[in-house]
Amino acid sequence: MDIKMLSLQDRLMSRFLRYAAVTTQSKSGTETVPSTPGQWDLAHLLMKDIAELGVTDITIDEHAVVVGRLPTRLPEGHAPVPAVGWVTHMDTVDVGMSPDVHPVVIRNYQGGDICQNEEKQLFISVKEHPELLKYIGQDLIVSDGTSVLGADDKAAVANIVVALEVLAEHPEVPHGEIYICFVPDEEIGLCGAKSMDLSRLPVEFAYTIDCCEQGELVYRTFNAANVTLQITGVTAHPMSSKNNVVNPILIATDFINLLDRGVTPEHTEKTEGFFWVTGIEGNQLNTTVKMLIRDHDRAKYLAKKEYLKACTEMMKIRHPKAKLSLSIQDDYGNINDAITPENRKCVEYLFRAMESLDIVPLDIAMRGGTDGSFISTKGIPTPNYFTGAHNFHSSCEFMPMGAVENSCRMTLKLIELITNG
Ligand SMILES: [Zn+2]
To answer: Is 268 helix (H, G, I), strand (E, B) or coil?
Structure first.
């Protein structure tokens, strides 16, 4: 397959700008999935776009999760090829900036600070972002400084649509069955992926394209749980408080003091896990403590859950008149725990694709999770690779088009490698 370099970059840029123009910032604390109406608009636009590229059986559910299938195209007698999926998210993150994105295209970047917004005097400075200098001579896309760029994850949405476009234009290129899936609300707790009926995705494995710099690949993520501890005490007038009042706020602080102060986000790195006390709210009768548990290592993750249960039992003994109830909800899992000797090839294909494209792999143990971290726990191993963009969740997010092109070449190379077995 010979795809002209410029044409691939042009296609990626124009697709990205088309999707960035639809406002899809997700909103946490909303009852519905999707959390914002713009995500419906993008879902419908994408349904139309992929229908023009040979994708069939396109469906959308009540949560705006779009799934389509590109049918197998193999010469007679070809060995069977596993069905594979691509999952990308349609929402952009809310970090307190404008939900509307106004991309700015910088042609042939020559180094130096980038002016995003003349009027508001907003810049991406080389001093703060020396990574810019890697991309001298490339075209860049930045935001106008009032919002994120939303390359997370619309660079990926554009990537998969352009890959479909290339396949549609090259009928000589063989491939197996490919499922395309667009989900909403990734940024607010993987809500779109969690709401999805995964029987719509009958694949052996899948990929997300949802990390940053060229070369990044992720199949190791946290195991994650959300924890709520509810404490009810006893309240009384000071006249009769002695030997009577049980203060739930003090029980909450006793509980928190049982946690190792070295096992917090601020004292851990790489694959180390932690407890994160994220909220405490209370009065003299009721107090609620919110916490997160994170750990790459499944055994240590389970031990952390057990430790919180033991702490709760201890508090019950120490404060027999108090009522304590602990709830621990699994949120997502380490993708690596879904990798078996039989399906390990989904990760190996990533390394092989990078090798054949001369991309140096950056194998990251991610201190977080992706849609794939949830989907993997449901039996579809779903590793993740780079979009090529930098500085997700920031007004300094930018897309160097050479790296974005290489991400799309990864997609096409993966399809080739999977087809050839
Ligand atoms: Zn993302």
So the answer is: coil
pLDDT for residue 1 = 52
For residue 92, the CA-to-ligand 1 centroid distance in Å is 8
Domain boundary among 291, 308, 332: 332
pLDDT at 6 over 90: no
The vertex-287 CA angle with 323 and 369, nearest 5°, equals 105
Question: Ligand 1 centroid vs 95 CA: distance in angstroms?
Answer: 13
Residue-wise pLDDT tens digits, 335-362: 999 999 999 999 999 999 999 999 999 9
Give the CATH number for residue 323: 3.30.70.360
**Whether residue 104 is found in the same domain as residue 253:** no
Query: Are residues 179 and 93 part of one domain?
Result: yes
Do residue 208 and residue 84 come from a single domain?
yes
The catalytic residues are 91, 186
Indicate whether 299 pLDDT > 80: yes
pLDDT tens, residue by residue, 217-273: 999 999 999 999 999 999 999 999 999 999 999 999 999 999 999 999 999 999 999
> So what's the pLDDT on residue 146?
97
Which residues have a Cβ under 8 Å from the Cβ of 325 and sit 6 or more positions away? 229, 230
From the CA of 248, how far away is ligand 1's center (Å)?
Answer: 38
CB 47 within 8 A of CB 66: yes
For residue 340, how far is its CA from the centre of ligand 1 (angstroms)?
25
Q: Please tell me the pTM assigned to this model.
A: 0.92
CATH code, domain with 83? 3.40.630.10
Is the CB of residue 326 less than 8 Å from the CB of residue 395? no
